[in-house]
Amino acid sequence: MQIGESNHGTILIVTVAGRLDSTTSPEFEKHILGRIEAGQTDILVDFAALDFISSAGLRVMLMAAKRVKAAKGRMALCGLNDNIAKVFEISGFLSIFTVYPDQQAALAATA
After folding, report:
1. Measured between alpha carbons, how far is 83 from 107 in angstroms, rounded to an integer?
2. Is domain 2-105 annotated with CATH 3.40.50.2300?
3. Each residue's pLDDT tens digit, 1-43
4. Which pairs with CB-CB distance under 8 Å and at least 24 residues apart come from 21-27?
5. Where in the chain are the domains?
6. pTM exceeding 0.85
7. With pLDDT > 70 as the criterion, what percentage of the chain qualifies?
8. 25 FRET partner, CA 20 to 30 A, in 14, 63, 66, 101?
9. 72 phi and psi, to 5 degrees?
């Protein structure tokens, strides 16, 4: 798994590539929760390069979403491929997150 980040105004864009599973989710958890604890509460997670997400990855996403919501922030997702979107749909997570097709659409919607 590779994690990248950039900023667009006040929005932190976190890109995740590879696999988000029980092996890699602790690293992602530390990364994203660290940003939230540091006060970053407008977050866009770009999964365009994500190949796989397990229940461990979903748990981290849920934890992050709850912390962002408690801080009155916003967290959205973009770039879900068909397999990742299906995992989010089956798990009921599509009702938790606003999902955009890509970064451009997400940033346009929050402008």
Report:
1. 23
2. no
3. 999 999 999 999 999 999 999 999 999 999 999 999 999 999 9
4. 21/52, 21/53, 21/54, 21/56, 21/57, 22/54, 22/56, 24/57, 25/54, 25/56, 25/57, 25/59, 25/60, 27/1, 27/3
5. 2-105
6. yes
7. 99
8. 101
9. 60, 30
pLDDT digits (tens, 9 = 90+) for 61-91: 999 999 999 999 999 999 999 999 999 999 9
- 79 within 8 A of 48, measured Cβ to Cβ: yes
Whether 29 and 91 have beta carbons less than 8 Å apart is answered as no
Angle in degrees, 0-180, between the axes of helices 55-70 and 82-91, rounded to the nearest 10: 70
At residue 92, the 3 state secondary structure works out as coil
**Which residues are bridge partners to 3 per DSSP?**
16
- Amino acid 93 reads F
